[in-house]
Amino acid sequence: MEQPQVGPRPALRRALPVLVLVVDLVVAAAARSEVPYEMTVIRTDGVADGVLSEDPLLATLRGASELVTLEDRTPQTLSVLESRIESDSERLVRVLRAEGYYDGRVEITAAGMPETALQAGDPETQPARDTQPVRVTIAVTPGPQYTLRSYTVDNAHPYGTPFPEPFELAEIGIALGDPATGRRIVRAEDQLIALLKNRGRPFAQVVDRMVIADHAAHAVDVTLTVDAGPEATFGGVAIEGLEDVDAELIQDRVTWEPGEPYDQAKVEALRTALAQLEVFRSVSVAPAADWVQPDGRLPMRILVTERPHRTIGGGISYATNDGPGARIYWQHRNLFGQAERLELRLAGSRRLSELAAEYRDNSFFEDIRFTFTADAGVRQELTPSFDGRSAQVAAGISFAYSDEITLSAGMRTKYSVIDLEGGVDDDSGESDEQRALLFGVPLALDYDLRDDPFNPTEGSLTRLTFEPIVTVSPSQLVLRTTLYQTGYWAPFDDDSVVLAGWGQIGGMIGAGLDTIPADERFFVGGGGSVRGYAFQFAGDLDDDGDPIGGQSMVALGAEARFRFLEDYGAVAFVEGGRTFDSGVPTFDEPLFWSAGIGARYYTDFGPIRLDVATPLNGRSGIDDSFQIYVSFGQAF
User: Strand 134-141 vs strand 37-43: parallel, antiparallel, or unpaired?
Assistant: First the structure.
């Protein structure tokens, strides 16, 4: 019997080399067909393309351009590049109009040829294929920027619902003569509706918008048609979704009375206040119906979802001189049903060990603007300046005068045992231990205009503190004052670049440096201060090369923050500062300066940061050539 053949048939064996050759040719052709390109964006009126100094219009166009944003994704064929050019030609004209440049033109060339010349089979496409990367240029001729000539609001029901009382255009962010940008026009609509909702019209809405451009006058006329809706007053409040939290906690935070004119600002303020209690996963405050009752009242509904009230968490950090550090905590955010928070924490590093408890109560007083806090803790510090053990008990009250201003006052008592130089004086043989018992009354004023406390891009923070401190043995009164200031500015709308700065000044009067407990002195240097110098080392040193600390201090810094690919960022910074042995800074000695760079990875809870800094005027044999810091959150 004839045996069956094993393996490929002869015809297939002869075809395999041909198939392999075809596949190789296809792959090679695909590789050769890639069309890498380089981008340039220019304005024909002479404004140059740049990075930090870039014209805002160019920055906006680059951010909207598919050619720019996808430049690192090489087109596989010339037709893909053509598609990007065609898409940008239309998109960028729309962007120009949105920025108020209604006569703007955009011309895109590749290898010096207009878009229409990049056609398959056209002999002029050969240079584009042969010259790689292809140079692609977006030439923008914006023309004049149109301005707002008029802004009119019409009533959608002139014979029905009466329109609310007149308002000034400035109340919705409009000033005639301003650039007629789409962003300004749309934002004014939002502000107008918010204004109406704050004046008793909960269902106000824009029905129509007409924007007419006068090309001869380079001006724009805007007409809005608005349905203000019926007037309404607040009705009853229904609270839903509570499990362990007392309803009284929410009821105490409702700032309106039944029958009071509807005000959306109060609704939003209540939602924010409830969210800040940290006991709810979600909070909704909204009308319970889509219509107003016959008596003019609008019932309200508060819907909440509670979050787990017990949490265990922690974090890690690293600094060159301190080594790794860790922190773990247990937290209960609803201890007695009124969002009272108790936190127990344990922290440890080569420099600091701490065990502490903190209690915070937002319902301690009838006025919810007051918050009561109390804390107690013990710690051990092993610093370059001293080794110390201390125990402290404190309590305080803060008052939220407004969304931006917070006042606080408290009392604290602290007992410290401090070893300044190893415990025994080298000359006398006597103990060099410092024991201190003190009582303080810390007072503070915070003025916070930041848009985000964890990752601010706009605004500022001002913090002024003043604390009379009475020490026992020696008996003395010390007055301690500090002023801390930060500022943030994002020059571009997408917050891709943030310029930030900070400064701090402090001083103590009433006693000499030697009689002030070492753990109450000012120190500068390290993470959270002047990066690039070891912890506490930006100041005078004793004969053993250890930091002395100061009665006063100055520190400041500036940082440029760049964000890209949504989750990643980089920073560059310069900082300087030092301590002084006088009650106020005398500036008789130069500041210690440093510079550095860093990387950021942005999470939902804030950025994770890695910074590397080097001293600019460091002391030979004392200051290391660089310092590394790893932590959570922005440096300031």
Answer: parallel
Q: How far apart are CA 541 and CA 534, in angstroms?
A: 12
Rounded Cα gap, residues 406 and 428, in angstroms: 51
pLDDT in tens, 172-198: 999 999 999 998 999 999 999 999 999
Q: For residue 281, what are its two tokens?
A: 């996963």
Contact 581, 592 (CB under 8 A): no
Assign 3-class secondary structure to 415-428. EEEEEEEEEECCCC
282 SS3 class: strand
- 4 pLDDT exceeds 70? no
Between helix 182-197 and helix 264-275 the angle, nearest 10°, is: 90
Neighbouring C-alpha atoms within 13 Å toward the C-beta of 79: 2
Q: What does the alpha-carbon distance between residue 435 and residue 545 come to, in Å, rounded to a whole number?
A: 23
How many other C-beta atoms can be found within 10 angstroms of the C-beta atom of residue 605?
Answer: 10
Taking residues 337-348, what's their average pLDDT? 95
Which amino acid, residue 515?
Answer: T
Give the model confidence (pLDDT) of 27-75 as tens digits: 444 444 678 888 888 888 766 554 434 678 888 888 889 999 888 888 8
Question: What distance in Å separates the CA atoms of residue 407 and residue 391, rounded to the nearest whole number?
Answer: 26
Positive or negative: CA dihedral 425, 518, 629, 576 = negative
Model pTM?
Answer: 0.70
C-alpha–C-alpha distance, residues 345 and 325, integer Å? 14
Alpha-carbon gap, residue 616 to 622, rounded angstroms: 13
Q: Are strands 310-319 and 627-632 parallel, antiparallel or unpaired?
A: antiparallel
pLDDT band at 77 (very low <50, low <70, confident <90, very high): confident
Nearest to 451, CA basis, from 507, 413, 403 = 403
In which order are the strands placed within the sheet that holds 147-155? Answer: 147-155, 219-227, 205-214
| Helix and strand numbers, DSSP H then E, in the chain | 8, 27
Q: Count other C-beta atoms under 10 Å from residue 217's C-beta.
A: 11
Structure tokens at 619: 């002391």
Spatial contact of 459 and 498, defined as CB atoms under 8 Å apart: no
419-to-21, 390, 526, 540, 544 alpha-carbon distances in Å: 81, 12, 22, 19, 15
What backbone torsions phi and psi does residue 280 show, to the nearest 5 degrees? -120, 140
- Residue 464 class from Cβ within 10 Å (0-12 exposed, 13-18 middle, 19+ buried)? middle
Interatomic CA distance for residues 378 and 347, integer angstroms: 11
Coil vs helix vs strand at 194: helix
Residue found by looking up tokens 């065609």 in the block: 86
Radius of gyration of the chain (CA): 33
Percent of the chain clearing pLDDT 90 (strictly above): 61
Pick from 517, 516, 487, 486: nearest CA to 504: 486
Q: Which DSSP string do the residues of 516-538 spell out, in sequence order?
A: S-GGGSB---STTSSTTS-TT-S
